[in-house]
């Protein structure tokens, strides 16, 4: 005859529901990857440029908008007012799906017109700009009145600007937004670049971070790319070696005939070429693992234990299947203990595998394993949580007669222990007039961890890190002496033993004394 325990372990582990739970636990372990692959430094926001030109028909302007990745932004409202000796003339445009909008103001063109410009984002933010003598352009010889059809930049973060690469947020690209004469696409125009080592000025104004207009030529510059649209993104050019700190990259647009334009920008090398993050230290690896175990992984352990114990025991209990099993030569106590241990064994294997996944991912990205004095106590804490909730759930199955009630109560306990516990502490603190974030409240917070099996991992982490953290309360990361708050190896061990023994004892008692 097959050993009952072996039979129950095999039955539990091969159950489709339990297999799904095991897969979920293991997959959750992969959620630590973002801790080792931080996103780039892009800042969400709107970038906008407005170009204008005039001809015999009046004023014309073209607006362009894009986000931090250089992608077009639609629905941006652009309001433009020109004031000349004949009066004020208004026009408006809304950017389309390509992030562009055009409008014309039928009025007699006057090169000495002043302008007032307002750009309204869909979310409500408005940027405003104004200026005198709108139609002036800057050349190698200074500035001059723009010729009819010659574009003028009115507003923007620059016709040449830096954006975050849309495929790899750790990289930076260069976006060029340029309009040819009479509002046409800049077909054939070229963008060139030049590295400027901070150790010599090379004709560049390093201190003021600009490029003297008299030097707007392509001499000594390298091609970045050809423009074939109003807005084009180029990858950052290959980084030159041996650049000193503070070195820059100068980028400029040239017309097809080789004439330099006033579309240029200077970027710090350190900004355009972000340095890779420093190697992960052992303390960082440990900290990442502790934070992951407590704030994410630990949340699912009670739910997994509740679902697994219901599938392996609770469901059979409320449906009457256990009665047919008891017709075999096996005692109630043996059957109950066998189901309890088989459920625990199946879930424990899954947790150990998931913790191993976390450790391997840490090694993959850092070359370091999580320290044994972190990984082993954390795994033991998860075993306590598993055992506690399996015992609680199986004990409840002896008291409740319907699957709905059992599942509902189990989920209710999960929600209370994992999510509403903090609100109960706030209420208790309010009733007892304990100040939030005070030492008495921290003492209350830690004391409550002893009473909550779902917070056992947090109790262990408090001992390991000598700190108490909470995303809800104001003392997150507060350093403490654990023993001052009753957190010692012995108190943790005793608490863990009780959370295993009491629910198990209650379950065994009910399973043998109560039908």
Q: Which sequence of SSEs, written as H and E, runs from N to C? A: HHEEEEEEEEEEEEEEEEEHHHHHHHHEEH
Number of helices: 11
Number of strands: 19
Q: Quaternary arrangement of the chains shown?
A: single chain
**Percentage of β-strand residues:** 15-25%
Gap between N and C termini, in Å?
27 Å
- Report low-confidence residues grouped into runs of 5 or more: 203-215
Structural class: alpha+beta
Q: Quick one: biggest sheet?
A: 4 strands, antiparallel
Tell me, briefly, the overall form: elongated
Number of domains: 2
3D structure, described in words:
The structure is a single chain. This protein is α+β, with helices and mostly antiparallel strands. The chain has 2 domains: 4-37 and 279-513, no CATH class; 47-272, no CATH class. The protein is 41% helix and 22% strand. The chain is built from 11 helices and 19 strands. The strands form 6 sheets. Strands 5-2-1-10 form a 4-stranded antiparallel sheet, with no helix packed on it. It has a 4-stranded antiparallel sheet with strand order 4-3-6-7, with no helix packed on it. Strand 11 and strand 12 (172-177) form a beta hairpin. Helix 2 packs parallel to helix 6 and helix 4 (282-319) runs parallel beside helix 7. The chain is elongated, with a radius of gyration of 34 Å.
Quick rundown:
With 515 residues, the protein is of the alpha+beta class. 41% of the residues lie in helices and 22% in strands. Strands 5-2-1-10 form a four-stranded antiparallel β-sheet, with no helix packed on it. Strands 4-3-6-7 form a four-stranded antiparallel β-sheet, with no helix packed on it. It has a four-stranded antiparallel β-sheet with strand order 14-13-16-17.
